Amino acid sequence: MGEVDPAFIQDPEHRPKPTMTHEAQDIPLIDLSAAAHDINSDSLSALVSDIGKACKQWGFFQVINHGVPEERRRRMETAAREFFGRSAEEKRKVKRDAVKVLGYYDAENTKNVRDWKEVFDFSVEEPTFVPKSLDADDEDVIQWKNQWPHYPPYLREACEEYAEEMVKLGLKIMELIGLSLGLAPKRFEHFFKDQTSFIRLNHYPPCPSPDLALGVGRHKDAGVLTILAQDHVGGLQVKQKSDGQWVRVRPIPDAYIINVGDIIQVWSNEAYESVEHRVMVNSEKERFSIPFFMNPSHYTMVEPLQELTSHQNPPKYKPYNWGKFFVTRKRSNFIKLDVENIQIHHFKIN
Ligand SMILES: O=C(O)CCC(=O)C(=O)O
Ligand SMILES: [Fe+2]
Prior knowledge:
By secondary structure, the protein is an alpha+beta fold. It has one domain: Sandwich (Jelly Rolls). About 25% of the residues lie in helices and about 20% in strands. It is built from 7 helices and 18 strands. An 8-stranded mixed beta sheet has the order 1-2-14-11-16-9-6-3. The protein has a 4-stranded antiparallel beta sheet with strand order 10-15-12-13, with no helix packed on it. Strands 4-5 form a two-stranded antiparallel sheet. Strand 12 and strand 13 form a beta hairpin. The protein is globular and about 55 Å long. The termini are far apart. The structure holds 2-oxoglutaric acid and fe (ii) ion. 2-oxoglutaric acid binds next to strand 9, strand 11, strand 15 and strand 16. Pfam families: 2OG-FeII_Oxy, DIOX_N. GO terms for molecular function: dioxygenase activity; metal ion binding. This is Protein DMR6-LIKE OXYGENASE 2-like.
């Protein structure tokens, strides 16, 4: 990537403002150690209450003492650096396309503006089952398969071991979120049988015009939950719910950044909301990050949970099929569209 192509340039109102720092406010930092021990302890109820508050006020928080072995994270991060350091020709050998949707890609759009990044996607379930077509009446299913590069040779194993850790942590956090909503601890678990979760390795190269382009344009995550490992460079910004200001997420070594996705917004009938975020780039430093997008099975009908709705609080969304939604999103990330991408508000009951 050399000079900035017009395809990368954000509309003026969406450009990052380098002078705006806003580092005073931080997203909450939560210690997960209590979740590793006694399930009925006082420390657990304090933890559940902190998680509930963070979900409500921010939709974003960081966690420490999360139980992910440091060695597995290091190996994953090193593999990602090595992979992106290979030649363009080598990386293109695992390039994704409209049929093989997993693998390497360097031309993703967010809201029809190109992101300053390259990515490598792999799914957690091998294979992952998704609907064959966008047609609501078509029940045919296809399989997505991972494309593993030859170099570095240990990348596949590093990815698979890392994915195991992400699934474990994801289920643990969903249990805590469930408890914070007054639900049974395992209430969410069945949604993740045949999950469509995937992990993305992100590389944001230095950008000559960080004032015009973004690593990822403003967006909300469509799935259930995102667990993000970011390096020491920083660049992630969250749109603060209280005043709409963009707030930087401070890099904390070995912490994970957790954010509520659109599906939790629907399941919780808007008790918790998914929050807009974006990634700034940097003219000197490259940056790496690794989000785990925790998604349910394709056959999940997403709708407000019965326990969280009532006469006084009727469902705010019509049920929608996650597989069809997901496949529609994936497709639109490839093609520049004239229309808005599929969004949960299309299912909103007014
Ligand atoms: O790289 C980051 O910090 C966040 C990336 C992100 O928001 C995404 O890929 O959805
Ligand atoms: Fe995101």
